[in-house]
Design brief:
This protein is of the alpha+beta class. It is built from ten helices and nine strands. The strands form two sheets. It has a seven-stranded antiparallel sheet with strand order 1-2-3-4-5-6-9. Strands 7-8 form a two-stranded antiparallel sheet. This is coproporphyrinogen oxidase. Belongs to the aerobic coproporphyrinogen-III oxidase family. Homodimer. Its EC number is 1.3.3.3.
Length: 297
């Protein structure tokens, strides 16, 4: 069945990314916890803590099924009860303030033959925005999209800018990336297999992007001020994930595993009162580019 094929290919993506991140880190290893969901299905949570560069990172796979709660049915505008959902979700928090936070999610959701879709994306949250890194990141995502449809990148880039936006702060979470939802044949002119291939292509883009960004920045010196700024920027990440993130909401409302859902949160974050960086500082310059609509290509 198609949904089993999706789940198996997602498990392979999880395996490949975990191996690659262990090599890139050089010290840390992933601990695996297998879990079952009350109501149907389960997953493989893999967490690295205290690595040489990865302070806390999660690479999670899940495949769950069962009855949709009423709130989720209303949000999805559906009447059916029985759902299946599978995906890989990744968040990496580095210990180095000049190495960015990265997030990736690829997922498939199915109610029946007519009501099913793919979603996902990758976005980057640098504590300090370096233009060359931002251009490299967006160029790689554009390549992954262009392999399938030239209109994918501009559309999904705009969607990411809009989605990863902290409304109460009037700033983007980071420099965006790509974000897409409800992809199916009638809105892509691709077959289900081709959309799955696109989803896998996005997944396979993660490792070369992030290992390159780690290698570019891991040996740079940093100051105590930069470390404090990292903790401050992490607090914005927490605010977005707890207030706006749809994956967090879906996980909580479908009786998901709490530790897996909240693995996206950093090990430490600071909420300084009314923090205002000095005009012209690197911190101030970063705030100036946390805006929608920047063309990084």
């Amino acid at each position: 069945m198609f949904k089993q094929e999706v789940a198996e290919r997602y498990k392979q993506i999880q395996d490949e990314i975990c191996r690659g991140l262990e090599i890139a880190d050089g010290k840390g290893t992933f601990e695996e916890e297998l879990w079952e969901r009350n109501g149907g299905g389960g997953g493989r949570t893999r967490i690295m803590q205290g690595g040489s560069i990865i302070e806390k990172g999660g690479v999670n796979f899940s495949a769950v099924y069962g009855k949709l709660p009423e709130g989720v049915k209303k949000a999805f505008s559906v009447t059916e009860d029985d759902f299946f959902a599978t995906g890989v979700s990744i968040v990496i928090h580095p210990n180095h303030p000049l190495v960015p936070i990265i997030h990736m999610n690829i997922r498939y959701f199915e109610l029946n033959e007519e009501t099913r879709w793919f979603g996902g994306g990758i976005d980057l949250t640098p504590h300090y925005v370096f233009e060359n890194d931002a251009r490299f990141f967006h160029h790689k995502l554009k390549q992954a999209c262009d392999d399938f449809k030239p209109e994918f990148y501009p559309k999904f880039k705009t969607h990411a800018d809009d989605y990863f936006y902290i409304k109460h702060r009037e700033e983007t979470r980071g420099i965006g990336g790509i974000f897409y939802d409800r992809l199916k044949p009638d809105n892509t002119n691709l077959t289900w297999e081709e959309i799955l291939d696109f989803s896998i292509n996005v997944g396979e883009t993660f490792l070369p992007i992030y290992t390159e960004l780690i290698d570019r920045n891991r040996d740079k010196e940093f100051t105590e001020l930069q470390k404090e700024w990292q903790y401050q920027r992490r607090s914005r990440y927490v605010e977005f994930n707890l207030v706006y993130d749809s994956g967090t909401k879906f996980g909580l409302e479908t009786n998901g595993r709490i530790e897996s859902i909240l693995m996206s949160l950093p090990p430490q974050a600071n909420w300084g009162y009314n923090v205002q960086p000095e005009v012209g500082s690197d911190e101030h310059k970063t705030l100036q580019v946390l805006k929608k609509g920047i063309n990084w290509i």
